[in-house]
Amino acid sequence: MKRMDTVDSLLLQLEQYGEEHDRNKKTREEKLRNVSREMGQFLSILVKGCNAKNILEIGTSNG
């Protein structure tokens, strides 16, 4: 399996896990605070577009 296929597979699994976990949660506090696929793609474009040398991620949920 190619590296990108492996990464794409992992990202899909994480996305599905988050959706499944949150499905029956009633409050925001119970849900995972993952960014959506679209937001992740947007953040990637921003980072690449500004040629960032460093990025600080502050986790708020499950890593």
Automatic annotation (TrEMBL):
Transmembrane segments: none annotated. GO terms for molecular function: O-methyltransferase activity. InterPro entries: SAM-dependent_MTases_sf, SAM_O-MeTrfase. Gene3D superfamilies: Vaccinia Virus protein VP39. Signal peptide: none annotated. Pfam families: Methyltransf_3 (PF01596). The keyword Repeat does not apply. Keywords: Methyltransferase, S-adenosyl-L-methionine, Transferase. The keyword Transcription regulation does not apply. It comes from the Bacteria. GO terms for biological process: methylation. This is Methyltransferase.
